[in-house]
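Lecture notes, unit on binding sites. The following record was shown on slide 14. It pairs a sequence with guanosine-5'-monophosphate.
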Amino acid sequence: MEDCLFCMIAEGKIPSKKLYEDEQVVAFYDINPQAKVHFLVVPKKHIVSAAALTEEDGALLGHIFAVIAKLAAEQGLNNGYRVISNVGEDAGQTVKHLHFHVLGGEKLPV
Ligand code: 5GP
């Protein structure tokens, strides 16, 4: 989608520090990390937020969580990590393209 930051990152039109890419998803480090390790996993398909997911996205979601687990292991997050997806203004969603924050590498505040 035009004018969507994460679509442009997924298409390589805007540079990012990519960790992983396949046909369905891209993962890259957050530009403003909130933990020692902070990366984002993003579907290439433009979906506004988790609130816009449908039953048909079930396989995509399963794939996203498999990628998250693989990347977390590769990043050495063996002691745990947090997965967050903000939905809408009250949650602080700033980029209107579904993304999953993966945070870890240290004890996270509860
Ligand atoms: P949200 O607030 O929507 O849940 O998360 C958006 C995230 O995208 C924020 O953590 C923010 O730091 C990150 N972000 C915003 N712009 C860019 C960018 O141009 N590149 C990268 N790598 N991350 C970005």
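Take-home: The two ends are 36 Å apart (CA to CA).
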